[in-house]
Amino acid sequence: MSWGRVLVRVVVGGLFVGHGLQKLKGSFDGPGLAGTEKMMQSLDMEPAKENALAVALAETGAGAAIAAGVATPLAASGLIASMVTAIRKVHGKNGVWNSNGGFEYNLVLISTLVAIASEGPGRASIDAVFGKSRWGGGGGLFALLVGVGSSFAVVEMGKRAAEQKRLVDGGGEV
């Protein structure tokens, strides 16, 4: 199973790196930071510039960490946070199926990341050098709880910042 883990890690981690680079640099026909910032504004994820940079760096860095098998539960938690936020802010209202813009793909990625964090990155990983080729259920639970909790915190902070921005821009009191 170790080489199977490597394959899953490299594919999932690599795709996240690609998504992060789309947001960060405009690679692979992505929007770049300016486009990602506009998306964050439209989703009431204020401060939009900081949230755009955070998601771009998180997907790029944590994707690379998953691919390399380093700090696996922590890396998985960052990517889970991104996917939970995508469900909550974009895809959830469209139902399950990806063909309708739903959250099917995000849910598959979340469950894959929880499995990677639980089962560990395998022997062919940086974590294994430090004796952590397998993290166990605690690693998966950590990744899921920190990821979901981070999403709720970021969305709530964004909502509050957006409300405050509207009041200031509208000339109202804060």
Automatic annotation (TrEMBL):
Q: Which UniProt keywords apply?
A: Cell membrane, Membrane, Transmembrane, Transmembrane helix
| Main subcellular localisation | membrane
Q: Does the keyword Cytoplasm apply?
A: no
Q: Where in the cell is it found?
A: Cell membrane
- Tell me the leader sequence span: none
The UniProt entry, under Pfam families, shows: DoxX
Coiled coil ranges: none
Protein topology in the membrane? Multi-pass membrane protein
Transmembrane feature ranges:
135-155
Regarding protein family, the annotation reads: Belongs to the DoxX family.
- For this entry, the protein name equals DoxX family protein
Q: Which organism is it from?
A: Paramicrobacterium chengjingii
